[in-house]
């Protein structure tokens, strides 16, 4: 059996039941024949300052990523219309290292739809036909779930982005889309 | 003179006056003795679908990043309380490649303060003393300007994060913090 390590990135580390949710993803990953690598797997040593604690976690997570062969990123919007920024950093990190990259979102509305909603529909084309929000910022429209660097970075490497549609109240806990992308990743990574 | 190429990442690509703003940063970078590498420097060829256009831009920007020796990322919050997700991907990408990393923000309120404001102050410690928002999500507190992967990733590599305080209405155009971090980066990269 091939030994393939998969880094599980996403905002579930912030959940009240983070440990339970991470453990559920870890178990599913193991059941799929892959070796789960999860933020929170290593103990965080005590540090004198808050910032040093942040540095320590950053260092541990980068070390875990380097030890992995692939990433499955949860790009479900977090505190706004876009993915968790730490997860985005991690996805870029893994793509740069040439690791296999997969992602999912639990929100069916794509990036364009969410940006239009952010402006409460107050978007209009500029003189060049480019759609802009009420603050003048361009509203992207690439049939993608988030910024093109993420969605494009995954698909250009042969990875897959699965779009789910979690029930109300289960945006960060529903595992339907995760299971789907996990099955795809496992079939490819273990082939 | 050393030839050092610096990738200029940030959400100004979405501005109504994007070209003008990017050109201002390019000129300042050149004046500092560095070679600017900016998204939008290369022509985007026509593509049959919107998604293929996104893929093309993603590929060009990754190519530009690989050609650069360093990144200066504009982590000013964009459409919410966090940095532009594409910029976060790019920062992770460059950090993984071992490039020098610098960043700035034009908002003086740090990540913790912005998260507390996101919950309109409705945050409280849980049974373990960890601060949580009204949705139960943990509110980070690391003396950092954004998620610890970004701020930590930069500082752990010896990079610098400059915190500005742009005037109202100039959140994406004020160049005070950019100039400050550019001067630090130039002094180090050209040493």
Could you characterize what this model shows?
The structure is a homodimer of 191-residue chains. The first copy, chain A, is an alpha/beta fold. Chain A is 39% helix and 15% strand. In chain A, the strands form two sheets. A five-stranded parallel sheet of chain A has the order 2-1-3-4-7, sandwiched between helices. The radius of gyration of chain A is 18 Å and the shape is globular. The model of chain A has no long low-confidence stretch (mean pLDDT 97). Chains A and B meet through helix 2, helix 3 and helix 5 of A and helix 2, helix 3 and helix 5 of B.
Spatial arrangement of strands, main beta sheet of chain A: 2-1-3-4-7
- The pLDDT mean of chain A sits at 97
Q: What summary fits the major beta sheet of chain A? A: 5 strands, parallel
Number of helices of chain A: 6
- Seen as an oligomer or otherwise, the chain set is homodimer
Structural class of chain A: alpha/beta
Summarize the model shown.
The structure is a homodimer of 191-residue chains. The first copy, chain A, has 191 residues and is α/β, with parallel strands linked by helices.
């Amino acid at each position: 059996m091939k030994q393939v390590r998969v880094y599980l990135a996403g905002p579930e580390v912030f959940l009240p039941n983070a440990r339970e949710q991470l453990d559920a993803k870890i178990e599913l990953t193991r059941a799929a024949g892959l070796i789960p690598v999860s933020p929170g797997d290593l103990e965080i040593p005590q540090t004198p300052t808050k910032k040093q604690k942040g540095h320590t976690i950053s260092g541990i997570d980068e070390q875990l990523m380097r030890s992995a062969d692939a990433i499955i990123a949860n790009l479900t919007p977090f505190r706004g219309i876009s993915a968790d920024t730490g997860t985005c950093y991690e996805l870029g990190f893994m793509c740069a290292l040439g690791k296999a990259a997969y992602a999912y979102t639990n929100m069916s509305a794509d990036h364009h739809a969410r940006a239009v909603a952010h402006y409460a529909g107050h978007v209009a084309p500029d003189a060049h036909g480019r759609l802009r929000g009420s603050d003048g910022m361009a509203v992207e429209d690439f049939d993608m779930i988030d910024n093109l660097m993420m969605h494009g970075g995954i698909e250009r490497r042969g990875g897959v982005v699965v779009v789910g549609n979690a029930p109300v109240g289960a945006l960060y806990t529903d595992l339907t889309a995760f299971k789907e992308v996990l099955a795809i990743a496992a079939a490819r990574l273990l082939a």
